[in-house]
TrEMBL record:
Start and end residues of each stretch annotated as Disordered: 1-39, 75-123
Protein's UniProt name: PQQ-binding-like beta-propeller repeat protein
Organism lineage string: Bacteria, Bacillati, Actinomycetota, Actinomycetes, Kitasatosporales
Coiled-coil zones: none
Native source species: Streptomyces litmocidini
Keyword Membrane: yes
One Pfam family from the record: PQQ_2
Domain Pyrrolo-quinoline quinone repeat: 143-269
Keywords, ordered alphabetically: Membrane, Transmembrane, Transmembrane helix
InterPro entries: PQQ_rpt_dom, Quinoprotein_ADH-like_sf, WD40/YVTN_repeat-like_dom_sf
Length: 514
């Protein structure tokens, strides 16, 4: 019997844990045979939504071990009378400072490796953070270093072993970073004007050379009036040009010395205003137009600019009622659009080099969700979980499935679904093949597989992550990923200043040396 050309199933061989793993989560046991991957179908979310609605309608929410919140009060046992004059014990519990959760060292993880499993390094960051969630910024790779900004510092680690190479300490927290550095390894980060959690402005530009860890120029963004604000600032780098969107205005600066080059022109003033910028091989500016209560008339405009002069090279306009969501790639230009405010009615749109429509893809039929159910976390227009773009292919995943579409025809090429783990497209290969990261679960380490036309029939395991790292890997929830020359780097998307929730800052795997 002939196999279907695009199967949606793939038995996955079980990965056995390393015996005596001291860092496995409580209750860790060797897993049984994994469920088989199956064809796409509707996800069982409707039942869950109904349950939540019923619970809310019932007047309370049930907490495990804690009864109903907002529901009928539980009966209270009658108190035994105390003798007159007996001291009443204090109800104020003693204040305890919890010990930070211990992160295993690289040596400890590697000591638990099984045959053929990846080597690893881990970074434990002891930085004292405010007791709240702190966003972990974009992940940059330059040469043999991986660099990331967190709170009030920017740190570089050596890719080969995770050793810290340099750290730039800043006086106030970082509030914006570009998606990628310049070709010669420079970035401009934006930090707050003061450390306060509320009432700050995101208006301090600081250039940093990622190759050396040296800081360059610094300047403050100015505000000229209405529609020109720095509460939320968006940045992008294209060549030696930094584009900055602030409020309803945008401008370009030279990365080398911070000189302002030009104001990005407004078009149809009062009707269209710049909303965000995307960079890389092209400089793109998104604008929202005809904004009103009636969202069926609103639309988005995407312009490609010559970074050096600001000249408009082409324009793309969405149909009325549709908005540009995220820019998945600037070369080729691939973006998401959605109708009104509904992220469940969305498309993937590919443009030609001249900005004309190339193809429109509707991924909903295969169960793909907008930015892998993560919504539009943060303000970065180039951030969309579970997406990857190759020269002629867009890959979608980040949930319980991963698949590929042809950018020229919009045709669905292949896909795999897994009830075991989440599948993240990681690196595009020849044709429509891709490397895919299988994220860790509480009891099963992650790994990297290769998939291509034919889907599950082509699956080849590239890297098995060691079971000794499973707890550390799972805690990161595949927040941010980078793949460089056979090595994967994983960080969380945010960290907590609460010591009880302390986690590793960075984790990396690569094939063991032969």
């Amino acid at each position: 019997m002939q196999r279907p050309s695009q199967p949606w199933y793939a038995p996955r061989p079980p990965q056995q844990p390393v015996p005596g793993n001291p860092y496995a989560p409580e209750g860790y046991a060797p897993p049984g045979p994994p469920p088989r991957r199956g064809r796409f179908g509707r996800r069982p979310v409707l039942a869950a939504v109904l349950v939540v609605l019923l619970l809310l309608a019932g007047g309370g929410v049930y907490a495990a071990g804690g009864g109903w919140w907002g529901g009928p009060a539980a009966p209270v046992a009658e108190r035994t009378p105390r003798p007159s004059g007996a001291p009443t014990p204090s109800r104020t519990p003693a204040v305890r400072t919890p010990a930070p959760e211990r992160v295993p060292t690289s040596d400890e993880i590697n000591a638990g490796r099984g045959p053929g499993e990846a080597t690893a390094w881990v970074v434990d960051d002891p930085t004292d953070l405010p007791r709240r969630s702190i966003e972990v910024r974009d992940l940059w790779t330059v040469g043999d270093t991986v660099v990331q900004a967190l709170y009030k510092k920017v740190t570089a680690h050596r890719l080969s072993d995770g050793a810290e190479l340099w750290t730039v300490h800043l006086p106030t927290p970082v509030c914006e970073t570009p998606a990628a550095p310049t070709p010669d390894g420079k970035v401009v980060v934006v930090r707050q004007n003061r450390e306060a959690w509320s009432g700050y402005r995101c208006d301090q530009l600081q250039m940093i050379d990622l190759r050396t860890g040296r800081t360059g120029w610094h300047r403050q963004l100015t505000r000229t009036g209405s529609g020109d604000d720095t509460i939320i600032v968006n940045t992008a780098l294209s060549g030696d040009v930094l584009a900055v969107g602030q409020g309803m205005k945008a401008a370009a600066y030279r990365v080398g010395d911070g000189t302002k080059l030009y104001d990005i022109p407004l078009e149809e003033p009062g009707r269209c205003h710049p909303d965000d910028v995307a960079g890389g091989a092209r400089l793109l500016v998104k604008a929202d137009c005809a904004i009103s209560v009636d969202r069926t008339r609103s639309y988005s405009q995407l312009r490609a600019l010559d970074p050096r002069t600001g000249k408009v090279l082409w324009r793309f306009r969405t149909p009325p009622g549709w908005e540009v969501g995220r820019v998945l790639s600037v070369d080729p230009v691939v973006l998401t659009t959605f109708r009104g405010v509904r992220r469940d009615d969305w498309r993937v749109v590919a443009l030609r080099p001249d900005g004309k429509l190339r193809t429109t893809i509707d991924p909903r039929a295969k169960g793909f969700t907008y930015c892998a159910d993560a919504g539009e976390s943060g303000e970065d227009i180039q951030e969309c979980d579970g997406t990857l773009v190759g020269p002629d292919t867009v890959y979608l995943g980040g949930t319980d499935r991963v698949g590929a579409y042809d950018l020229g025809t919009g045709k669905f090429l292949w896909g795999v679904r897994s009830s075991l783990t989440r599948l993240h497209p990681l690196h595009a290969e020849a044709g429509s093949a891709a490397l895919v990261y299988e994220s860790a679960t509480p009891s099963r380490p992650g790994g990297i597989i290769r998939l291509g036309p034919g889907g599950a029939d082509t699956e080849k395991r590239v890297l098995n992550h060691p079971a000794s790292a499973v707890a550390t890997e799972y805690a990161m929830l595949a927040g941010r990923l980078a793949y460089v020359k056979g090595r994967i780097v994983i960080t969380p998307s945010s960290v907590s200043g609460d010591d009880r929730l302390h986690r590793a800052r960075m984790l990396s795997f690569a094939p063991a040396a032969p």
